[in-house]
Amino acid sequence: MLNVTGLNQYYGQSHTLWDLDLEVPEGECTVLMGRNGVGKTTLLKCIMGLLPIRGGALDYKGTNLLRAGAEQRATLGIGYVPQGRQIFPLLTVEENLLIGLPARRDKRSRVPDFIYEMFPVLREMLRRRGGDLSGGQQQQLAIGRALVTDPQLLILDEPTEGIQPNIVADIGDIVRRLNRDMGLTVLLVEQKLPFARKVGDRFCLLDRGRVMATGTMPELSEGLIQQYLTV
Q1: How many C-beta atoms lie closer than 10 Å to residue 6's C-beta?
Q2: Pairing, β 14-24 against β 55-60
Q3: What CA–CA distance (Å, rounded) separates 199 from 179?
C-alpha cells in the first residue's frame, strides 16, 4: 500500500534519514521501532508532507505522494495521529472530531457512529474541552479524529506514550480491531515491545536514520532487541 524508496532527509547540514526503504503491505500492521532519536518520527513527518525530503520516492497505492501537499494526503486516505496527540485544547471533543470531516471523500457531514461505539468516553464528554481530558482520553480523541477522515492507512506515532496501563491495553485492542476486523492498514511507531508484539504483523528497525532489519513480528529475535532496542 505504501512504499518508501531511497528516502533521504536533512535537518540543515545534518543527514538524518539515509537511503531509507520501507514497505507497508495492505491490510497489515507494520511497527516502526528503534531507540529515541533514530529518525522514526522524522520518517512519519516526511510521509505526511510535514518535512521536506532531499531525495527518494513515496508511493501510496500508485500515487506519487511527493506531488501532494500535506493537506492533500488526508484526502487520499491517510490518517495521522501525531506524537503528543496535538488535539485542540480549547475546542470541545465534538469540535475536535468535526475538524476531520472535510477530508472525507464522501463529504459526510456528521461523525460516524462507530467512533462513539469504539470510544464511549468521547460521547460522554462531547461538550468538554479537549484540554480538560486526561492523557488517555486525549489519545482516544486523537485516534477518533483521524478515523473521522475515513482513512485506508492509519499512521500512529507512539500511541501509548504517557498513557496509563489500562488505557494502553484498550488502545492495543482498538488497533487490533481496526486492523484485523475492519481491514485498516496500520503503520505505527512504538517503543513498548509487548504492545508491538500484540498489535504488529511486521516490524522495521531503525538505527541512526537507516533501516537495520525488517521482517514478520515472530522474526524479531532477542539478538535484534538487544542490539537496537535495549538501552
Answers
A1: 12
A2: unpaired
A3: 9
Q: What is the dihedral of CA 101, 107, 113, 115, to 10 degrees?
A: -40
CB 195 within 8 A of CB 168: yes
CATH assignment at residue 100: 3.40.50.300
* Beta strands 2-11 and 14-24, pairing class: antiparallel
Separation of alpha carbons 44 and 30, rounded Å: 13
Query: How far is Cα 50 from Cα 43, in angstroms, rounded to an integer?
Result: 10
Cα first-last separation, the chain: 32
Alpha carbon distance 15, 8 (integer Å) = 8
Name the DSSP letter for residue 86.
-
To which H or E segment does residue 43 belong?
Answer: helix 40-47
Which single residue is written with the C-alpha cell 485542540? 88
- Total domains, the chain: 1
Residue 60 bridge partners (DSSP): 2, 63
Determine the 3-state secondary structure of 192 from DSSP: coil
Q: Which residue range forms the structural domain that includes residue 168?
A: 2-228
Which residues on neighbouring strands pair with residue 170, listed in sequence order? none
* 110-167 per-position pLDDT tens digit: 999 999 999 999 999 999 999 999 999 999 999 999 999 999 999 999 999 988 888 8
Give the model confidence (pLDDT) of 84-113 as tens digits: 889 999 999 999 999 999 999 888 889 999
Taking the C-alpha atoms of 182, 184, 187 and 189 in order, what is their torsion angle to the nearest 10 degrees? -30
Give the three cell numbers for residue 136.
488517555
The torsion angle over the Cα atoms of residues 210, 215, 216 and 217, rounded to 10 degrees, is -40
